[in-house]
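PROTOCOL LOG
Step 1. Enter all chains and additional molecules of the complex.
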Amino acid sequence: MPSPPAAFRLTPQRGAVRDVVRQAQDHPTAREVYQRVRHRAPGIGFATVYRALNLLADHGQVLELQLGDEAVARYDGNVARHDHVVCNPCGAVADVSVELPAHVTIEATAASGFAVDAYELRFSGRCPSCSD
Amino acid sequence: MPSPPAAFRLTPQRGAVRDVVRQAQDHPTAREVYQRVRHRAPGIGFATVYRALNLLADHGQVLELQLGDEAVARYDGNVARHDHVVCNPCGAVADVSVELPAHVTIEATAASGFAVDAYELRFSGRCPSCSD
DNA sequence: GTCCCTGCAAAAGTTTTGCATTGCG
DNA sequence: CGCAATGCAAAACTTTTGCAGGGAC
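Step 2. Run joint prediction.
Step 3. Record the structure below.
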């Protein structure tokens, strides 16, 4: 079972959190999601946002990421399999999608002994702004 | 300049930290490195370990990683370019090394606009113990 | 003597949890 | 009513930083 199929109640707060993450063009932290959600749901508390993010992530409706060297979780509303490019100087993150030859996963399985069923590629470099 | 060429003083404490990370078979957190280093350098403080890890990472003598969904940094003494396989159920991490075709990096550069100069592949699945 | 390093302790920032209240079923 | 969800506040952790003392050069 790749992800919990069980349903959950989509309360107004949870819906707002989900929408904020889906519409975000960047990869916001929990705190940033909280700040943005407050515009739609003024009385919402941080704990509600935090628990909603965990819930949504558990149900595959949102992705939880650890990017760069930062010690904070970031959220991604793009649920389709995709990869990331991180800018070393400024920390900017962009989505990209790279298809890997099937033999790569097979090799990884053979080399590690793990049953590999997914991958994520993380590129690093310099964003256009930092390349100038 | 990929990494700061400037030298730094390899004090006994820093040497002990470096050795602990290099000899670790797992990917210890700063706290774990601290606990292990205390066996060799009994009076050492956590701040010293923490600063040593950052210093070593800055000089490319150690790798700092964010693995899984955890919000803690882990350290890897394997400095050669390599990838990781994470076990979803238990969090175990294994090193693997996968050579990607050159065109992959080129594609990522074209698709993102970033000047991509490195990558890390993160596989996920189940380790042998969790597959039983 | 000067500068860097260490250790202790505290500050800052995130993540997580307890609990009383609220509200939908 | 019964139970899940919310909000507020407080823990529990990690990561960082300030400072005084000590050692290396």
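Step 4. Note key features.
The mean pLDDT of chain B is 91.
The first helix of chain B runs from residue 12 to 23.
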